[in-house]
């Protein structure tokens, strides 16, 4: 959105309960002091710059039942409540002598009998509350310690956090961020003379969250109540990137947690500040089904789609300018809509067939053709047509031979595949999905039973095979087109190995597997007996300084190339021998970029650089051949790929000659366009990002990756082989 197109309003903009609005408050910028900017993520053109008198000098701390809770800036010792739908002025509360207030909660509207405003402190395990009964002549703050009550429940000292409301009751988390934590009920009893607050055990946190391995970690849990629902949200990270999210809901009657697989029309917003607290609001309406996370550091919004398990990034151009001038972006939540009626259960799937299909209402006349004739027809189908043919007629699945036999090999010889496919591994449902980068076609097969489980990871992809890990130690090769699995010796250190690669298909006697850790190289010769891993210490100039490698490739039958997160290339010469040595390409290309991808094509080593994760610019370099055998290796910048194409993702990159002119001179990302759901690519001809329209036509261009969606399921590019 062009900042000059923002609307100006002397008062509140036309807010709606259909959506959550973001409010940027100009509390420190001198030229805009007292202004507010309202932004709606679902209607990006509906942004307003306002000056609301009731918000002058006040910071929004929360929204409950249509009321806005505010505190004065910067001292936060004067609190007030305001209902923007009424003509009344904010209700000012007495001065508060504490500046370390952490969270606020309004269990019921201020005009409800027995209503109180409940606060928590950062430095002391106490509640601070104020009775809001209008009949009282004088309002006052009361502080009450909950330390002893909480210790009786958990056995240790601590704090509560994540205050939230549900059915008029208040719930919170104990301060421990482990999976043995508790949801506690903050029971509030208001009588004419006093307010009694008790902390009671309610339910343990769910235990079936994904296993955190190696350098992975998670934040949260975040607790949110909405009308009659209570939710828990987990965020899992790998190398500072969100790798997984879990949304679970509590059955309030049975006190059992259930994972939500489809958020339907609901929307959840997380505003994570530097103290790791969260302001969460929910609404319903169009464009729902997402958890939106405000990242003030990067000045973007991350949107996690619960059903698809994809992550999109949204830019807010006007907010990006404002964020550099103010520290406060708040959530403006109108009265929350009920989320009752959720049904997170998916339809039962037919386990008798390999390919997922839609049911047919009318039986095709093709069923009148004898099966042996249908088999002959299918012999002449290309692989995509073959799979679609089987998927259309479920009854044909049984008599048709499986992939990987002689007939499949003959089909492959008749049909030349255009490109690799993006493979997405849904561990939750045991489904493998393939996406065609040109046409956007998708089809799914079932994951082999031996590979089912939430801890299955993709480590590398080459030659049509996947190197995978399971159960922290188990390693195996897997060919999804033939369902062949080849197990490797266990490797206990697999959690702490950043990058894997292999030199040849596992069917080759020359196949060697490499794993790079902080200070060690692990090597396995697939055809050698006994089957074991060989461990070598890395040689570093000036001492044993660990490196975090993001990509590694094997080249020239003797050299291992490894790229770290800072773009430094290490070359391990004669890696198969004990007297190998390490050469570092210490002159990285002059760039302020952040993301680096290492690619091999024949004997060439290529480097793709994105200026940041949003891809504002793309640069391409090739390791100079004339320096390949020398220690002073150098990168040479190139302008394009010619007739070649590159496919990149976080674990493996592929480069090959394009089979069609439409696909050449492009870089294909493991990302989907937020609108049409097709693969996003970068063209060196236009220096812009695109997707393919119907057929092979290039669609509308855009200058960065904002709005594109990334799969959080394990995914990788793979070249089909049979």
From TrEMBL:
Please give the superkingdom of this protein's source: Eukaryota
KIB1-4 beta-propeller domain boundaries: 38-296, 443-682
Pfam families, sorted = Beta-prop_KIB1-4 (PF03478)
The name this protein carries in UniProt is KIB1-4 beta-propeller domain-containing protein
Q: Give the species this sequence originates from.
A: Mikania micrantha
């Amino acid at each position: 959105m062009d900042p000059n197109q923002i609307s100006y309003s002397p008062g509140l903009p036309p807010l709606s309960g259909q959506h959550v609005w973001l409010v940027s408050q100009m509390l420190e910028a001198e030229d805009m002091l007292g202004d507010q900017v309202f932004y709606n993520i679902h209607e990006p053109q509906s942004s307003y710059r306002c000056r609301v008198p009731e918000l002058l000098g006040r910071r929004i701390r929360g929204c409950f039942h249509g009321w806005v809770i505010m505190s004065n800036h910067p001292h936060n010792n004067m609190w007030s409540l305001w209902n923007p739908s009424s003509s009344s002025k904010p209700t000012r509360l007495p001065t508060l002598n504490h500046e370390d207030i952490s969270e606020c909660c309004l269990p019921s509207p201020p005009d409800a009998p027995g209503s109180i405003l409940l606060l928590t402190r950062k430095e002391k395990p106490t509640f601070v509350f104020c009775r809001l009964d209008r009949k009282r002549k004088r309002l006052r703050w009361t502080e009450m310690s909950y330390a002893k009550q909480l210790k009786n429940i958990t056995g240790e000292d601590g704090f509560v956090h994540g205050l939230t409301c549900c059915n008029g009751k208040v719930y919170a988390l104990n301060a421990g961020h482990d999976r043995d934590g508790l949801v506690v009920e903050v029971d509030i009893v208001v009588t004419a003379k006093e307010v009694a607050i008790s902390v009671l055990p309610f339910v343990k946190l769910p235990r079936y969250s994904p296993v955190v391995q190696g350098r992975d970690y998670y934040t949260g849990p975040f607790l949110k109540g909405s009308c009659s629902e209570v939710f828990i949200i987990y965020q899992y990270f790998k190398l500072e990137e969100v790798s997984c999210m879990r949304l679970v809901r509590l059955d309030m009657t049975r006190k059992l947690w259930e994972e939500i697989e489809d958020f339907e029309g609901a929307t959840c917003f997380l505003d994570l500040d530097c103290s790791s607290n969260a302001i969460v609001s929910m609404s319903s309406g169009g464009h729902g089904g997402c958890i939106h996370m405000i990242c003030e550091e990067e000045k973007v919004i991350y949107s996690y789609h619960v059903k698809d398990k994809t992550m999109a990034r949204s830019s807010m151009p006007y907010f990006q300018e404002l964020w550099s001038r103010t520290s406060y972006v708040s959530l403006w939540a109108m009265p929350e809509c009920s989320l009752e009626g959720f049904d997170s259960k998916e339809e039962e799937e037919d386990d008798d067939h390999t390919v997922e299909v839609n049911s047919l209402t009318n039986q095709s006349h093709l069923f009148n053709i004898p099966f042996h004739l249908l088999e002959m027809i299918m012999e002449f189908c290309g692989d995509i047509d073959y799979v679609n043919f089987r998927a259309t007629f479920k009854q044909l699945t049984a008599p048709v031979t499986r992939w990987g036999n002689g007939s499949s090999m003959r089909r492959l010889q008749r049909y030349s595949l255009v490109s690799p496919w993006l493979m997405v591994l849904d561990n939750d449902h045991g489904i493998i999905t393939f996406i065609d980068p040109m046409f956007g076609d998708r089809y799914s097969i079932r994951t082999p039973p031996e590979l089912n489980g939430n801890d299955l990871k993709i480590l590398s992809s080459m030659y049509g095979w996947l190197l995978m890990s399971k159960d922290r130690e188990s390693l195996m090769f897997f060919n999804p087109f033939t369902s062949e699995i080849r197990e490797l010796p266990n490797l206990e250190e697999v959690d702490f190995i950043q990058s894997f690669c292999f030199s040849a298909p596992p069917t080759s006697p020359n196949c060697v597997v490499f794993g790079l850790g902080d200070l060690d190289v692990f090597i396995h010769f697939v055809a050698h007996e006994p089957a074991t891993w060989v461990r070598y210490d890395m040689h570093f100039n000036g001492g044993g300084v660990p490196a975090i490698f993001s990509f590694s490739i094997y080249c020239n039958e003797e050299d291992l190339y490894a790229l770290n997160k800072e773009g430094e290339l290490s070359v391990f010469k004669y890696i198969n021998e004990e007297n190998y040595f390490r050469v570092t390409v210490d002159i990285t290309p002059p760039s302020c970029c952040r993301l680096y991808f290492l690619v091999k094509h024949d004997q060439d080593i290529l480097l793709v650089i994105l200026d940041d994760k949003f891809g504002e610019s793309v640069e391409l370099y090739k390791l100079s051949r004339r320096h390949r055998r020398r220690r002073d290796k150098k990168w040479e910048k190139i302008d394009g790929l010619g007739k070649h194409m590159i496919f990149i993702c976080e674990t493996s990159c592929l480069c090959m000659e394009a089979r069609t002119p439409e696909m050449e001179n492009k870089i294909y990302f493991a990302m989907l366009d937020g609108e049409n759901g097709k693969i996003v690519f970068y063209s060196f001809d236009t220096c812009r990002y695109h997707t393919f329209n119907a057929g092979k036509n290039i669609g509308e261009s855009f200058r960065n990756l904002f709005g594109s969606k990334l799969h959080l399921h394990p995914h990788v590019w793979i070249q089909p082989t049979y």
